[in-house]
Amino acid sequence: METRRWTNSPYLQLSMTMVLWGSAFSSSKAVVEHVPHSVGAFLRFGGAAVALLLAVRLFGGRGTRVPARSARRAAGAGVLGVFAYNGFFFWGLSLAPSLDAGILIPVMSPVLTSAFLLVTGKERAGWARTAGLALGLLGAVVFFLGAGGGAQGGSSRLWGDALFLVSAVCWASYTLVGPRVLSGVEPLRATTYATCAGALLLGVLAAPDLAEVRWSEVPSGVWLNSVYLAVGAAAVANLFYYRGVASVGPANASLMMFSVPVVNTLCATFFLGESFGRLQGAGALILLAGAALAVTQGRLPGRRAASARPRASTAAATAGRSGPRGEAAG
């Protein structure tokens, strides 16, 4: 009984999700080092599509009927949240370390979403939110300055980081349209439709490069990483994430997203030998502090009134969505 209660703990499931998402950045980098970035993206999400289709077959309600219009909208969302996001993400990985991606994407996505909600008047700007966004912007500037200079930087890394920022913009946009576009569709099925649509387009993008890959010379580690990314960082992480959010709410779940850069830093450092200089490190810390302040609005989520959750958690939920769902966080 105790074992079952522990394995069903929402915070344990969310913690496992963050580990899967955090490690996905360095795992994706290991794939891109041996195949073109377009092929790497297709391997990951082609496999994820197969894994999610299997998950729907096993865990999805067999009697559930999804309206054709809802299915089309969910697939359309995959163009932005899977195809565009991961096209830029894997392209960036071919130019810059995964260490940078694990800082910029999961942290900048909620910052960008919060900024959009404030500019459009959908949320009010308290002092904590405003200060957090200002810190986030400052941290991003410092981080990019560090990427462009010094022994650890260079133009290639700077361009890669710029592509990671575009990825964050794509994911923030997907998060903003997601609740409306994916409404009325069970989360597992919605993610499956989006992933399949995005994977199909990634396959079209990768088609010219597929013929140039010498498949017999591809190391076994590339295949192992691809399977891990598809099954672990996509299917399993998605399932755990949605269960955790359903139990504790998006505001509490989103705060755990800030553990993703920590996991990614450990993986990138120990497995890939990546590093960044002091200026980038300072920018990363400022960026993390600003994002945390903007998302929490200077308060612990447990102290928020339940009645305020629909407004207060809108931007906070974006941190949980940046990433990775499995396809986004890494």
UniProtKB/TrEMBL annotation:
Residue ranges occupied by any EamA domain in the UniProt entry: 12-144, 158-295
UniProt topology in membrane: Multi-pass membrane protein
A Pfam short name: EamA
Transmembrane segments: 12-32, 38-59, 71-93, 99-119, 131-152, 158-178, 190-210, 222-241, 253-273, 279-296
Principal subcellular localization: membrane
Gene Ontology, cellular component aspect: membrane
SUPFAM superfamilies from the UniProt entry: Multidrug resistance efflux transporter EmrE (SSF103481)
Subcellular location per the Swiss-Prot or TrEMBL entry: Membrane
Keyword line: Membrane, Transmembrane, Transmembrane helix
Positions of region (Disordered): 304-330
Keyword Ligase included in the entry's annotation: no
Domain of life: Bacteria
Family: Belongs to the EamA transporter family.
The protein's name in its UniProt record: EamA family transporter
Organism: Streptomyces populi
Lineage, broadest ranks: Bacteria, Bacillati, Actinomycetota, Actinomycetes, Kitasatosporales
